[in-house]
Write a structure and sequence with these properties.
Layout: H1 2-16, H2 24-33, E1 37-45, E2 53-54, E3 59-65, E4 71-75, H3 76-80, H4 86-93, H5 103-109, E5 124-127, E6 137-139, E7 145-147, H6 148-155
Antiparallel strand pairs: 1-2, 1-3, 1-5, 3-4, 6-7
Helix pairs in contact: 5-6
């Protein structure tokens, strides 16, 4: 009986923790209102080959593109939530990039991952429906997501696409650093 309750609790937690507080249609409207573009991204594996494999699943994101064509992508939940997500905290706290060798390494340093499978030359990322325009998204354990490259650039003082600080509905009131 204890095992059943544990499995049931875990199932409820995993199926309800991401969107219970954030209606997707309101989050999408908020993205558009702030001059973002709502996109559906799909996971792709083996993007370094001629025939990448589209995997199951999809992710609704908001992408902000600047006049110079730089951009930043964040999941709709992180953008719209009034409570913190790990992606929002990583962006707002700006942990230093020292000691990292790439944007993927920086994502890992913060506790996220943008890697598909084990470290190899196959490649992977989040693309549009036809597998073009594949980007690296840093996925955190709470399932919040932010563009790995833009996150690293922001920590170096460069806002790509748009500065998310005023756009994120969560406003960090804590003095604790993101570690």
């Amino acid at each position: 009986m204890k095992i059943f309750l544990l499995v049931l609790s875990l199932a409820i937690l995993l199926t309800g923790c991401r969107t219970a507080d954030v209606p997707e249609n309101q989050a999408a409207a908020y993205c558009l209102k702030n001059r973002g573009n709502v996109e559906t991204r799909f996971p792709y594996y083996d993007t370094n080959s001629q025939t990448p494999l589209q995997m199951a699943g999809e992710l609704e994101v908001c992408t902000f593109t600047a006049n110079d064509q730089s951009r930043v992508t964040v999941d709709l939940v992180t953008l719209y939530a009034e409570k913190p997500t790990l992606a929002a905290l990583a962006y707002l706290k700006n942990p230093p990039v020292e000691g990292t060798t790439s944007y993927s390494d920086y994502c890992s340093k913060l506790g996220g991952s943008d890697r598909f499978g084990r470290a190899n030359d196959a490649g992977g990322g989040w693309g549009n429906k036809d597998g073009k325009d594949v980007i690296s998204l840093c996925v955190f354990p709470d399932l919040s997501v932010i563009d790995s490259f833009a996150l690293t650039q922001h920590a170096s003082g460069i806002a790509r696409g748009a500065d998310l600080t005023p756009l994120l509905r969560y406003k960090d009131q804590t003095r604790k650093p993101f570690q």
